[in-house]
Each structure stands twice: as structure tokens, then as C-alpha cells.
Amino acid sequence: MLSMACKDAIRAMIYIVKKKSDDFISINEIAKELDLSFYFLSKILQKLVKQGLLESYRGPKGGVRLAKKPKDIKLLDIIEAIDGNAFFTECVLGFKECSDSEPCAIHSKWAKEREKIHKLFANTTLQKIEKELENKLNIKL
Amino acid sequence: MLSMACKDAIRAMIYIVKKKSDDFISINEIAKELDLSFYFLSKILQKLVKQGLLESYRGPKGGVRLAKKPKDIKLLDIIEAIDGNAFFTECVLGFKECSDSEPCAIHSKWAKEREKIHKLFANTTLQKIEKELENKLNIKL
DNA sequence: ATTATTTAAGACTTGAAAGTCTTAAATATA
DNA sequence: TATATTTAAGACTTTCAAGTCTTAAATAAT
Q1: CA A118 to chain centre
Q2: Does B68 score more than 90 pLDDT?
Q3: In a domain, A96, yes or no
Q4: What's the CA gap between A40 and A1, in Å, rounded?
Q5: Structural domain tally of chain A?
Q6: CA end-to-end distance (rounded Å), chain A
Q7: Looking at the domain assignment, is residue B139 inside a domain?
Q8: Which bases of chain C come closer than 7 Å to a protein CB?
């Protein structure tokens, strides 16, 4: 469902928010902590910079940091920045024309569940995730 | 979410059940009617034969037909035959260890919605789809 | 100024899914 | 029996995401 790049992007964003740092965080640090390829993660985070979710700074003490408040960054923003919105708009059976008026055989039921997932991602901000991480132990990053 | 192969498999199965034929239906016919590649569809349906969802017969008047009653074939059977069950078992963020006891940051919410989709696919049999197709116009195949 | 450190950009390689083709095996029919 | 028709199996090619690497640009610290 989510691409590898998207999963990595979400994990990186959670790592960043969890640090609660006003300084820039180097991509190298994030890659090491999350056991990701520095090269691959760099490319992914560049997209988040371009989408305005992160801001970056070059040179020593450079890195990335959130461009907005954690309460204003939704999981959905990250997903759409990396994977686009195909999952939330395209027919589950792949019909170009599938819609409420011209549905495929499972359109209505699928659209209903898909909308719940859309809301889940739209309602889950980095702030909420951060809060959960504070309250619970045993949470994987 | 579903692979191309899986989407094609579902469409083909719906086409077959809709025909209500005791005879074998040639893959060539299905491919033409659904505007799919004969080669690609052949490979996909071979998997469904191996999984026991279809039975096939070679030679003139050969083809494929359902190996079970429409009420005993679930959408989930088709999906698992082609794509496996990764979507329903793997962590949305890609953690190997993610589980109820060792959750990732969004495990519980995701697992809840995912289970609904699992049930949707498990409850939707070819018979139910066939019934809907009879009742409604404008249903895309 | 020079050097080290960091992201930016884009070229390049790899791997897996998608898609095509060829040959073999089964079988109905003439 | 010979032929045409159909699926089976697997080799082959294409496409695109995943992943790697190199060079450039920015900037802090010495």
C-alpha cells in the first residue's frame, strides 16, 4: 500500500518530531538511527523539503527540521508528498471510469472503507503521534 | 494496493461468474471482452487454477470455469492467490517486529481499519457480486 | 582563505513486477 | 490419423520503483 519511500519518510518525520529540537538534524543521523540508506533517505527527504513539510540547511550544523508545527503536519501530507493520492482516488479494480455514478462491482463498499483510511491519515498529526509516543512504552520507530 | 495482476484476476472471475455457464470459457474470450492481454491473463488464471479457484481444460471447447460454487469463492481468496497476504499481515510502516505487543506508532489504528477491509473482502463472495450485478445497471466490469 | 561538513541534483545500477513470446501437451473434430 | 484449438510452462523483454554514487553548492569553523 505505502511505498518503501513513503514508509521511510514517515519514520523519519516521526524521528524528527520526537527530538523536539529547534536545530537542524543531519540526514546522516536519521539514517543511522533508523537503519536506512543515507542515499535513499536523502532523496526522499528532498521531496518533503520541496513540498514544504521540511526545511533544510547546508553545511556544518546543517540538516533538516520541520517547516510547520507538529499539529499542522498530517500523515496524509507525507503520504501525498511521496506517493501521491492514487490510493485514495483510483478504482480498486483499476477502472479509469469508476465513480459513484458508474461504479465497478465493489465500488461503494471499497470507497466507504477507503474513506475511513483517508480520515485516519488526515486526522493523525505528528503532534498526536508524538503524544502517543510519550504515553506508551514499547513503541517502534 | 492490489497488483495489476490481482485486479485483472478479479475482473476475470466476475466475468466468468456472470456468464453462468457450465461449459469452459476460453481465456481468449475473456481477454477480448475485458480488453486485457491474452498472454498476461493466461499467466494470472494459471495461478487461480493452481489455487483451486478455477479448473481448466485443454483443446477445442477448452478454457476455464469455476472450480467451486460462486458462494464459496471470496474476493479474499482471489487476492491471496495472486498477491499473497502481505497487506493484511505486514506493518504499514514496514517494521518486521510490529505487533500488538510491540506496536509501531500507528499500529492499533491501522490494524483496525485493515481488519475492516479484510472482512469486506472475506465477506464479498462472487455470488454476492453476481447478485448486485443483476440488480443494478451501469456496473463496470 | 582553506577545510570539513552538509544538503541538492542528477546520473547510474539493481531488482521486481508487468508484459510478451515460444514451445509443449492435451483433446475435439473431421 | 491429421489438424486445429486450447491451456501449461517457462524463457525472454520492458518498465518503473528502489537504491547507489558522484559532483556541485552552501556554510561553519579554524
Answers
A1: 13
A2: yes
A3: yes
A4: 19
A5: 1
A6: 19
A7: no
A8: 4-11, 17-22, 25-29
Q: Which residue type, as a one-letter code, is found at position B4?
A: M
Measured CA to C1', what is the nucleotide nearest B45?
D7
Tens digits of per-residue pLDDT, B10-36? 999 999 999 999 999 999 999 999 999
Q: What are phi and psi of B47, to 5 degrees?
A: -65, -40
**pLDDT reported for residue A135:** 86
Q: Are B52 and B65 in contact (CB under 8 A)?
A: no
Domain range enclosing A92: 4-134
User: pLDDT tens for residues A93-115?
Assistant: 999 889 999 999 899 999 999 99
Here the ipTM equals 0.92
pLDDT at B20: 95
CATH number at residue A34: 1.10.10.10
Element (H, E) at A56: strand A54-57
The H-or-E segment that residue A57 falls in is strand A54-57
Query: Of A66, A36, A39, A83, which Cα lies nearest the Cα of A130?
Result: A66
Cell of B86: 502481505
User: Nearest Cα to B117, choosing from B59, B55, B75?
Assistant: B75
How much is the average pLDDT of B132-140?
A: 84
Query: Does residue B35 belong to any structural domain of this protein?
Result: yes
What is the rounded average pLDDT of the residues A31-55?
Answer: 98
Residues lying close to strand D (Cβ under 7 A), chosen from 58-87 of chain A, are 58-62
B116–A116 C-beta distance less than 8 A: yes
Distance A63 CA to D7 C1' (A): 58
| Helix, strand, coil share (%) of chain A residues, nearest 5 | 55, 10, 35
Q: Is residue B98 one of the residues assigned to a domain?
A: yes
Cell of A22: 529547534
